[in-house]
Amino acid sequence: MINKIDNMFFFCIKCQKCRKILIRDTSNTVKILNAHGNSLNHEASSDCPSLNCRNLVFLSEENLPDWISKKIVEAQWTKGRLNCPDCDCRIGAFDYISGAKCDCSDKILPAVHVIRSKVDVGRITKRCSNEEVVTNKQLE
After folding, report:
1. 99 belongs to a structural domain
2. For residue 92, what is the domain's CATH number?
3. Distance CA 107, CA 101 (A)
4. How many CB atoms are closer than 10 A to CB 9?
5. What is the DSSP-derived secondary structure letter of residue 52?
6. Could you list the residue range(s) of the whole structural domain that residue 57 is in?
7. What is the mean pLDDT of the chain?
8. In a domain, 1, yes or no
9. What is the pLDDT of residues 35-77, one digit of tens each?
10. What does the alpha-carbon distance between residue 140 and residue 137 come to, in Å, rounded to a whole number?
11. What is the pTM of this model?
12. Neighbours of 35 (CB within 10 A)
């Protein structure tokens, strides 16, 4: 009898310059979103023709990493840039003032985003043995 290994897919974001893993989406809570606020695994993630969907990756405000939360508090919940904590390369931004809409005018964009050209969005395979395998393939 062959034992089947259950694989679960999650995402991680790494800085392209220094390769540090900045965000791991390995819990039961979704951290990495598309422009419409859905998980990257969501079926509707590629339905929007907007450049925002293709060029940016958004982050859930409820589950931000501590280093991003600290930047937002320092900026007093207004606007600011996100830099890699290791190499200081700009990787994204946050904007709690404008409330910008998606180009398709369907949804309001999440406030915190990272720029796809500055980071690698990879898929993590989490196996039952708690072993993590990160694939280096850039996700479209």
Report:
1. yes
2. 2.170.150
3. 6
4. 12
5. H
6. 7-134
7. 77
8. no
9. 777 776 654 445 666 666 778 888 988 888 899 999 999 999 9
10. 9
11. 0.75
12. 27
